[in-house]
Amino acid sequence: MKNQKSVGKKIKEFREFRQLSRPDLALQANLDEAQLQLIEEKGNVPSLGILIKISRALGVRIGTFLDDQETIGPALVNAGQAEESLSFSTKDETSREHLNFFSLAQAKAGRHMEPFLVEIEPAEESDYKLSSHEGEEFIYVLEGSIEINYGKEVYVLKKGDTIYLDSVVAHNIHAAGDEGAKMLAVIYTPI
Predict the structure, then answer these.
(1) What phi and psi values does residue 19 have, to the nearest 5 degrees?
(2) Comparing C-alpha atoms, which of 42, 48, 36 is closest to residue 11?
């Protein structure tokens, strides 16, 4: 995937521009330095929560690392033309999370929301790892059904259902059952 290495490269460029050492950024973002090195040097894609922590520590919006080009006006993505931007992982190498993100505003400069088309592959395991990050999420189920572990609650959403949630509450989104799903997700994170 073309953007995997560019995320780490952009993080490194912003870190160096801010004249921060890798240990300093790791400390400010509450990350392990070795993990940050893998992101910057090996192209490992961080989880959404970790990417938000890094963006907050650097004082930039999360979209800064996802931008492909900068368009001042509206960003148009025609049906079927959304480019895969990231597959988010977790710190745990054994994660069974299968979320493929397709950015719907990658070309829009200065945006405050991150709209994604998300394809969710069915998971074979049921021990879902919860994560949290600052901000809010709006989800609209387009195909199939999804299950959301949100704190101690579990929500099942089917095609046409929506949910608006605070991302600071530990959560996990995965396909409900043994079939994949597709959803529209709009993520907002304050700078």
Answers:
(1) 55, 45
(2) 36
| Nearest-angstrom CA–CA distance, 90 and 49 | 9
Name residue 137's amino acid.
E
Instruction: Judge contact between 59 and 29, C-beta under 8 A.
Output: no
pTM: predicted TM-score of the whole model, two decimal places: 0.65
**159 and 130 in contact (C-beta within 8 Å)?**
no
Residue 177 near residue 145 (C-beta atoms within 8 A): yes
User: Cα 164 to chain center, whole Å?
Assistant: 16
Convert the pLDDT of each residue in 118-176 to its tens digit.
Answer: 899 887 666 677 888 888 999 999 999 999 999 999 999 999 999 999 988 999 899 99
Dihedral angle over CA of 8, 13, 17, 20, nearest 10: 40
Distance CA(75)–CA(81), nearest Å, equals: 12
* Tokens 């330095």 belong to residue: 33
What distance in Å separates the CA atoms of residue 46 and residue 52, rounded to the nearest whole number? 9
CA distance 73 to 52: 25
Structure tokens at 128: 């879902």
